[in-house]
Amino acid sequence: MNDILTTPRYQRWPRRGFFKRLLWGAARKLALGGLYAWGLEEHWLKIERRDMVLSGLGEGLSGSTLVHISDLHCSPIVLERYLNHCVEAVNALEPDFVAITGDMITGPKLYARRVARVLRRLDPRIATVACLGNHDYGIFHPAGLGGNRGLSQYVAHELACADVFVMMNESRVFHRDGAAIQFVGVEDFWSDRYDPCQAFEMAGDGMPTIALCHNPDAAWHVAYWGADWVLSGHTHGSGKTHTRVRDLVFPAAHKDFLAGEYSLGGGKYLYVNRGLGYARRMNLNARPEITLFTLRRAAS
All domains of the chain, ordered by start, with CATH? Predict the structure, then answer.
């Protein structure tokens, strides 16, 4: 059964910056700049518990746990104290790994410093790994309106200082008691630096591999290069009406990849996390989500 954590105290504005908060509160209700937050259920955290079956997983890592979070969107709307509460919920699960699949911020560089301050409080037994999302390159589409040159490198640097290993077309291997597991992270699918070939270039063959890829549209491609599981976010769990304008601004190749687990065939899987940030939630089934995976060895 899933745990539901409620945080009603975060719905009260602080006295400092009252008018600034008021303006942003109006913006969220009016959907200004695509930064609105749906008023219903915006602060309910849903903890999903699932098994992640991996071929070749060594006994030393069997039973280990991995927390997957995504789409923090630290911004004038998604506040630090709410994200701090999310970190407390993650730490309470005592995970071995934490994986974050992008969209750390929505806004200028100062929010990179703020989200790094939040994520510095994560306390996994082994490591925190991450990839970036489209909003970490600019407020909107990274190749178009709202792009911010150098933002992604700045976000990655701030997170690295907070002991979060951001993989930008990179891989990393972790060992425990003679067992090994490999994480591969790609740059955002919409960016001009998305390169799974480079990401898997130094990856080991035959090793259990979990890929972090913000946009689930790239899942088939990333799985082809060798990922057993692909962890994504981006969708916020919400189905949207597709129009020519929306598809131009928010193109989606696989509109069915909304939330939850999907089989990609050949023993490969995709999991789409609904995210923590509560912007653009349009239905009651899209509460902010923390996913707890227990790593299991595949049967011979």
Answer: 42-297 (3.60.21.10)
